[in-house]
Amino acid sequence: MSIVYFNKQFVPLAEANLSIRTNALHYGSAVFEGIRAYWNPNEQQLFVFKLPEHYERMLNSCKVLRLKVGHDVKDLCALTVDLLRRNQPKEDSYIRPIAYVRSEGLTPKLVGYDTGFAIYTFPLGDYIDTSGGLKVGFSSWRRISDNSIPARCKVSGGYVNSALAKTEALEQGYDEALLLTQDGFLSEGSAENIFLIRDGVLVTPDLSQDILEGVTRNTLISLCRDELGFPVVERQVGRTEVYVAEEVFLCGTGAQVSPVVEVDRRPIGTGKIGPLTVRIQQLYFDVVRGRHPKYRHWCTPVY
Ligand SMILES: Cc1ncc(COP(=O)(O)O)c(C=O)c1O
Predict the structure, then answer these.
(1) Distance from Cα 32 to the centre of ligand 1, integer Å
(2) Among 216, 219, 220, 221, which residue has the most ligand 1 atoms within 8 Å of its CB, making it the best to mutate?
(3) What is the mean pLDDT, run by run of 10 residues, along the chain of 303 residues?
(4) Class of domain 134-288
(5) Domain segments of the chain as ranges
(6) Which of 50, 68, 90, 154 is catalytic?
(7) Which residue of 253, 256, 287, 288 sits with most ligand 1 atoms within 8 Å of its CB, as the best mutation to test the pocket?
(8) Is 63 an active-site residue?
(9) Is the CB of 97 under 6 A from ligand 1?
(10) What are the Cα distances from residue 156, in Å, to 5, 39, 51, 216?
(11) What pLDDT, on a 0 to 100 scale, did the predictor assign at position 1?
């Protein structure tokens, strides 16, 4: 994966370098996306999952940060497919576009500076474990709020919040962190949205709970309602409601569908991966790899 898109050109990775004076390095003044492409060996095809949806969110993040990428969603999708074709991956891959304040000005501000844009890609299997069952813990760090650094947008600087929580979780022996909002309600994981199953109903924090508007979250809401016939409710969730859920799982482009078996040392349900989570995960893996005809339009073929 040695070719990247940088400064409006396709160049070798080694030539895509920035000055240490770059404003975004100092202030986190950048927005990014995380996109996956799945290899389908039977079809010898690479499918990018929900490509336009990711760039729509990226342009929304740019709008909030006043960054001007200079490309629309269609251009960005075409550039990404072009980049993948140049690199020719025949395995599951991750795609990372980033728009950043390129100027070397000292002021932490968002207007009057140039925006840089780059995309790179690399092979990626699981980001967090999808098969063993995760042990997670609530963080002592609270989720950044919409009026400080909006979690709705994938702002680079906001990921300090994720990094603090994830580090603490790993050092405490957990696989992943859960974060509460400033008001003490369930928000999301360090890089994942979260679902609970209670009495056969899927419950997930609503969009006012300082969460990223997850592409996978939206995908699963549709799939659970339309394919599996599970009711889905988006609402405020208290901390201890997670402890008493029958099943819990995390989701995200990186995380995919990752079952949770323990929260704050309390077993979830039987303490084993739940049966509904398994069904949701299997369906998701079929859909992203282009194996579900009804949802082929979510998969952009590269070759
Ligand atoms: C903080 C956070 N929440 C949720 C998600 C899941 O979002 P998506 O499904 O769009 O990848 C991510 C990233 O993947 C994230 O970084």
Answers:
(1) 11
(2) 216
(3) 92 97 98 98 98 98 96 98 98 98 96 97 96 98 98 98 98 98 98 97 98 98 97 98 98 98 98 98 98 98 98
(4) alpha beta
(5) 3-123, 134-288
(6) 154
(7) 253
(8) no
(9) no
(10) 19, 28, 20, 20
(11) 58
**Whole-number pLDDT of residue 177:** 98
Is the CB of 214 within 6 Å of ligand 1? yes
Cα of 219 vs centre of ligand 1, distance in Å, is 12
Distance CA 104, CA 91 (A): 37
Lookup: tokens for 234: 């988006």
Question: Ligand 1 centre from 105 Cα, in Å?
Answer: 30
Could you tell me the fold of the domain covering 3-123?
D-amino Acid Aminotransferase; Chain A, domain 1 (3.30.470)
